[in-house]
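Reviewers of the previous submission asked for a worked example of the structure-prediction workflow described in the proposal, so we include one complete record here. The input consisted solely of the amino acid sequence. No template or homolog information was supplied to the procedure at any stage.
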Amino acid sequence: MMKSFFSGKELWRIIGKDNSNIKKLGRELNVKIDIDKQGNIEIKNIKNDSFIEYIALKIIDALALGFDIETALLLKDEKYSLVKINIHSYVKESRQKQVTGIVIGTKGMTKKIMEELTECEIVIAEHNIGIIGKNENAELANEAIIMLLRGAKQGAVYRFLEKSQPRIRAIHEEQVEELIKK
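From that input alone, the workflow returned the following structure tokens.
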């Protein structure tokens, strides 16, 4: 059994409309999820499999950040990971809105370009940025976002991501070759 605590907006994101997220997560992972009025969450796998409970907790963390249930459920696959970046770890609170705006970009273009170049989903919620993608891609998106948080220009970040594309393609090709051999 695993336990966690969430409140406010995070709790509502986790629950979903008419408990839809909790119901779907319970069905997909064969877990029972209890949430009390204070926001305490208890996850129990019917087979007492702590790894499944851990995965459910990762998915709940993703939902709390603002990912939709379908994207969060990608975390069932060990090839996918969730990266959570606390903006306060990189900038003072007084600069948070400005830096968040830089990460999002005009009309959301910076975020969209990073998502396309890394093949990841990115959400920005309050003082956190969440990334879900294949492990290597999520790490690349993490590096790019940290570059922006540390003051790099968007163009420099785009060039970094474009130069990294061959590396990502090579990793994906290796994975495909492994699957073919099996």
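Strands lie at 2-5, 31-35, 40-45, 80-86, 121-125, 128-134. We consider this example representative of the routine output the project will generate in years two and three.
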